[in-house]
Amino acid sequence: MDYKSAGVDTDSHKLALDKVKDKIRRTFGKRVVGDVGHFGGLYEVPGDPSRVLVATTDGLGTKVHLLATLGFHDRVGRDLVNHCLNDIGVMGATPLFFLDYIAGASLTPTILAPLLDGFAEACLGEHVSLIGGETAEMPGVYEPGCYDVAGFLVGIVARSEIMDGHDIRPGDRILGFPSNGLHTNGYSLATRALFDAGGLTPASAMPDGGGTVGDALAATHVSYRRELDALRTLARGFAHITGGGLVENVPRILPAGCDAVFRRTRWDVPSIFPLIQECGHVDPVEMDRVFNMGLGMVAVIPEGSLAEAEHALHGQDLACCVAGEIVPGTGEARIVDE
């Protein structure tokens, strides 16, 4: 079983994007900073070229259906806000405001109220203004009881403090920060493997005794804002590990001439991942290109600053591991079993 057989063809998505990249670039005005492919879009503040707005948008994919089925409507907002916070955070930005979009067959008060409450609670906790949103009821487009969400977050960063990995170099060390599971990616493959192929249900017990399968899948996407803030002046780059895993997200910050090598034995893999692999007979290479496999965020640190970085994190009780290093190469990331 793989992502494509589960209904998600990421290769075709990349092909489509490649076909229109040049046209997208032609829309850029003089205030757009950088290119297509960053974790957030960059736009110079009008009248103040020293500061740059950072914008991102995302959804939860099929995790939103799982959360709705389990009745966890109030968790949707926290998942989406955290995902977006991480995406602009890796660019060095401080979040400013958030907007949401909710569409479904019928957005009854029992669904809509906890959804909106979840977005508001998440924004309150992160000191982000929830300045607006949109709802759309579309019977016939969505099945009864089904809905989808999207989030839009804008932050700001000094142009001189944009984090894009441009000064990463061989010899740098990679710190990894643990995930608590899938976060918001890979759910189409995970549910097909666990429920269809494996015959499990959300109420099934996890093999390690750590709650149920539903608990593991519904775990909220971790916000790494504290980790990012702790390392802002020490790191040369950050990568948010979402769809595509380490092997596709880390190259987004690597300069030409650098590879990232991760050593798998250096971090713990949450038990939900080997269970997915076993139930769906998923190839290890496919697991690495779909899931975060236990690391939700990475930071690239100069070797000489590693001890200072670890001290800063441990002083705030923030877990990390030295997950790998930067070596000469061609801009790729790979995971070795050592």
Would you summarize the structure shown here?
This protein is of the alpha+beta class and 338 residues long.
CATH superfamily of the largest domain: PurM-like C-terminal domain
CATH topology of the largest domain: Phosphoribosyl-aminoimidazole Synthetase, Chain A, domain 2
- CATH A-level architecture of the largest domain: Alpha-Beta Complex
Mean pLDDT: 96
How many β strands by DSSP?
12
Shape: globular
Note the gap between the termini: 26 Å
Q: Helix coverage percent of residues?
A: 25-40%
The strand line-up of the biggest sheet is 1-2-3-6-4-5
The major β-sheet equals:
6 strands, mixed
What does this structure look like?
By secondary structure, the chain is of the alpha+beta class. It folds into 2 domains: 31-161, 2-Layer Sandwich (60s Ribosomal Protein L30, Chain: A), CATH 3.30.1330; 173-336, PurM-like C-terminal domain (Phosphoribosyl-aminoimidazole Synthetase, Chain A, domain 2, Alpha-Beta Complex), CATH 3.90.650. Helix content is 32%, strand content 25%. It is built from 11 helices and 12 strands. The strands form 2 sheets. Strands 1-2-3-6-4-5 form a 6-stranded mixed β-sheet, covered by helices on one side. Helix 5 (187-197) packs across helix 9 (272-280).
